[in-house]
Design a protein that fits this description.
single chain; alpha+beta; five-stranded antiparallel sheet; four-stranded antiparallel sheet; 13 strands; extended
């Protein structure tokens, strides 16, 4: 019979930890909505869990309605402003998320978002970026302005708008070109806002 020569308390702690790990491995990992408390079911829908939450390993998330509400509440606390608010700022980084959002982070702690709130019967997105975002980082923004045009739309679009954001530093110029189209009854413009709290940025 082998004799255990280590500390008995350490041995017991190790056994307890192994039991907890084994118990966690037996649990099912599910997405858990932090808003309504529902979980994502195997068919992709959200519903009330059959077992207690202790029976699952929770991956915190939001169902679609709660996620949209959380974003709306966060944005309600932000301040809409002009792109010229960037002038004089020194950016630490610029991040583009797909062709829907562009985030600007300044070294003074301020942060901004360029985006469009999508609605039905419209489509507004980044069409092209001319230049390198790195040219906007680490030096003061000398010029930041918006221009727009309603000529030369894409084929079959009855109502459209081009929006150009021109941002210049001593390193170079970046032009962000947005294209918006709709059935004529919805907005095709782009929004620019300052975030009061960087943690709210999507």
């Amino acid at each position: 019979m082998l004799e255990f020569t280590g500390d008995i308390d350490d041995y017991r702690k190790e056994l307890e930890m192994n039991k907890k790990i084994e118990k966690m491995n037996e649990k099912i990992m599910v997405s858990y909505c932090m808003g309504c408390g529902k979980i994502r079911l195997p068919d992709g829908s959200w519903g009330v869990p059959e077992l207690s939450l202790d029976s699952y390993v929770l991956s915190h998330s939001y169902c679609k309605p709660c996620g949209e509400q959380a974003i709306a509440e966060a944005r309600a606390e932000n301040v809409e402003c002009e792109i010229s608010a960037l002038e004089g700022k020194i950016l630490s980084r610029v991040e583009q998320i797909d062709n829907r959002f562009i985030l600007f982070y300044a070294i003074d702690g301020s942060s901004y978002e360029m985006y469009h709130d999508q609605d039905c019967c419209e489509d507004v997105r980044v069409d092209e970026v001319i230049g390198d975002y790195e040219d906007l980082v680490g030096v003061p923004i000398l010029d930041a302005r918006e221009e727009s045009s309603s000529t030369n739309g894409k084929k079959s679009d009855t109502s459209f708008m081009w929006t150009f954001y021109i941002i210049r530093t001593i390193k170079g110029t970046v032009t962000i070109r947005w294209y918006g189209s709709s059935n004529g009854y919805y907005s095709e413009s782009v929004s620019f806002r300052e975030f009061i709290n960087e943690s709210q940025m999507a």
